Amino acid sequence: MARSSNFVAIFNDQKGWRSCFGRLFPAAFLFFLLLFTWSRWIAQHNKEKLLTWSLLGNISKLSTCENQCRLPGSETLPKGIVAKTSNLETRPLWGLPKVTSTSKSLFAGAVGIKQKINVDKMVQKFLGSNFVVMLFHYDGIVDGWKDLEWSNRVLHVSADNQTKWWFAKRFLHPDIVAYYEYIFLWDEDLGVENFDPDRYLSIVKSEGLEISQPALEIGESEVHHLITARGRRSTVHRRTYKHGITGILCDDNSSAPPCTGWIEVMAPVFSKAAWRCVWYLIQNDLIHAWGLDMKLGYCAQGDRTRNIGVVDAEYIVHYGFPTLGEPDKAKIAASEHNPINKRIEVRRQSYNEYKVFKRRWKKAAEGDECWTDLYPDDDQLIQSSL
């Protein structure tokens, strides 16, 4: 009886424990479910907050970076590693470079060995003013200059039968020559006996000239346009009142080339800001510069009637020697039948290139809706002067 009673008691106890567990299990399950749900919500909430902070940080960074102008091709590099400019100084293979020039100006010219004597005088003049000098050899002869004392102090670039504009487009990129405040891009047939580069730069700076040239001495020079002729009573002049052999009259109201805002391109001097603009005008397929001078006003960095001028106080002589494209007398003598006049062919090519240049300019002007023509009436005036 006692055993039966104990069994009943145990059975009752187990039944009660199961009944209690049955009541507690749903409550515990609900509790853990709520805990799990709450923890997931907290985790998701924190994740969203972190994502929001991250996005805000990226947006802020993006906004900051959008205001930075990075050079094309440097986007994957840290900004501080990018060197925007360089110079034309040579460097030794070991050791520290010697300071060969402290000048902030560059003289460059296309030269041939036939004009060696005259070029020698020009180079000595500019080296004497501590210029960096770069010679473009259009006849392919470089070794013929090695006997000159200064030959290893200047830069030599050689390519057969190319003009200074071809060389300049490829070897005077604005980022390279941005180190230099002024770029002299001259022909080889210029006399510099009465020219001082330092005094010239002093005048150019004081007058605010972005594009300029030294005046041509009348009587000794080949003068194509009277605006380039030397005025003996002035330091600088910016206009003329007669346009040479064409008979076109210029007056105080004239605002277009060749009356004002114009230089000839045998001896141009550009500020680095003006050169950066002019460099874009020189087409890859442009050899000659006929007509280029008529568009220089667009690169004057302001009012072309003020920022373009001819310096009378420092003048040169334009000998007008025929060089590139000069007839080869030996070949002409050897060929009795229909010899080619190379000078005529050069002029014909110049004229053809100018026609191409005008067509490209017109097409570009019509196709750029964001561009404003500063001188819309020029084409008609320039055409009448050519």
List the helices and strands and how they pair.
Blueprint: H1 2-66, E1 105-111, H2 116-128, E2 132-137, E3 155-158, H3 164-171, H4 174-177, E4 182-186, E5 190-191, H5 197-207, E6 211-216, E7 236-237, E8 242-243, E9 248-249, E10 269-271, H6 272-281, H7 304-307, E11 308-318, H8 329-334, H9 342-367, H10 378-385
Parallel strand pairs: 1-2, 1-4, 2-3, 6-11
Antiparallel strand pairs: 4-10, 5-11, 6-10, 7-11, 8-9
Q: Stretches where pLDDT falls below 50 for ≥5 residues? A: 7-11
Shape estimate: elongated
Radius of gyration, rounded?
38 Å
- Please tally the helical runs, counting DSSP H or I stretches of 4 or more residues: 10
Order of helices and strands: HEHEEHHEEHEEEEEHHEHHH
**What share of residues are in beta strands?**
5-15%
Output the keywords.
386 residues; alpha/beta; elongated
Task: Give a description of the structure.
There is one protein chain. This protein has a single domain (105-385), classed as Spore Coat Polysaccharide Biosynthesis Protein SpsA, Chain A. Strand 1 (105-111), helix 2 and strand 2 form a beta-alpha-beta unit. 40% of the residues lie in helices and 13% in strands. The protein is built from ten helices and eleven strands. It has 386 residues and is an alpha/beta fold. The protein is elongated and about 125 Å long. The protein has helices at 2-66, 116-128, 164-171, 174-177, 197-207, 272-281, 304-307, 329-334, 342-367, 378-385, and strands spanning 105-111, 132-137, 155-158, 182-186, 190-191, 211-216, 236-237, 242-243, 248-249, 269-271, 308-318. The strands form two sheets. Strands 1, 2, 3, 4, 5, 6, 7, 10 and 11 form a nine-stranded mixed beta sheet that branches. A two-stranded antiparallel ribbon has the order 8-9.
